[in-house]
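Instructor's aside before we start: the two examples that follow are unrelated to each other. I chose them only because their records fit on one page, so don't look for a connection. First example below.
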Amino acid sequence: DDYITKPFSPGELVARIKAHLRRYKHFSQHKVEEEDQIIQCKGLKLDVKRYELYVKGEKVNLSATEFKLLHLLLSNKGQVFSKEQLYEKVWGYNDYGDINTVTVYMSKIRDKIETESTKPQYIQTVWGVGYKFNDSV
């Protein structure tokens, strides 16, 4: 995001590199502070820093992908995400997998956090659109 024309002095190059490093450190530090949190919601406790989930006080093991999906939904309660959006945010642009992978992972998460996975209390399906974390919980 920077351009320097020739001829340039080594001092200017060093100054620009230092400026980029300052910005990088500032934004990286912000991300670390953001991740140093615990999200709680009626029976669920998601410790983002430790990658741990507790359901009604009991630790539940999640894979890294399951954790990312749950964290995304919990951080945006009530917001509906399409399968495509979830796939893009969790797996990224460079992954060329099947979009139905999202459905499989949602089922796995529900099995681990819901009392009855057939009557989900936390993660709800919005038919024809995608998924959301129930904001009334």
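Example two begins here.
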Amino acid sequence: MLASSIDPMAGGGISRNYNNKATLGYLGPAGTFSHCAAEKWKKGTDTVLVPYSSLASLVAAVEKKEITTGVVPVENSAEGSVGIVLDLLAYHGKVKIIGELLLAVSHQLLTKPGVQLDQLTRVLSHPQAIGQCRQWLAAHLPRAEIVEVSSSALAATLVSEAGDPWAAIGSSMAGKLNNLQPMAENINDYANNTTRFLIISAKAKAPPCSQCKTSLVFTLPHQPGALYHLLGEFAQRNINLTRIESRPTKNELGSYRFFVDFIWHYQEGLMNNLLGSIKLRVNDLRVLGCYPSVN
């Protein structure tokens, strides 16, 4: 497979030869929790991991088939959904969800060797990581400046290059790659901190699985009971939703796009019947993917 990308982290626009191997893109640089998720998904295969500097460039590369698949974070047990990922899935019509995985996320406070906690003046990380450690930071570093950057791995790199006593919140992998030590471990506010990742591809077919998770996105007409009647289509079929939420359509204030996940015994006829009924109640409908459920 010959892949190219304008993303500087993925080759700077220069074609890269992967020797016909499958490729999996992730939000880089190396050491992010997305990198950890990519390693978990590729385990036991010779899939080539390709870092991207933004989620937007990663999803675009998948849509253009520059890489085979991509892994993106979609929700966290403490901080909720990753809005930008939902928006990217909604507006990149050729991208499909083909799988999911759950990653236990344990945050470390990473510093240069010899730095003490009371010396720290700044803590850097991705907004999601900062949010997952908000209470710990308030209790232990109330005077430190909290700075958001594009990834936890970049935060570790910046700390390793800084001349000031800074710290990064990130993975143990990010610490090792940047010669940082974990001053404090497991600093996330909730012990069972878990992030759900989606595997996306431009090539997807409904899987032959008995219990599949299906993801839909749609908009509703502005009329009383629209959402109520839509949800009734699931209730009368005894389908339990695992997630429902809304995001602005970005067209006008008060206009929303709904995302729904549900698990159901997959049979093509039953699914077509459900989708046909839903189409009668929405303005537009797209199936984001039907894939094996992990929970």
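The first strand starts at residue 2 and ends at 3.
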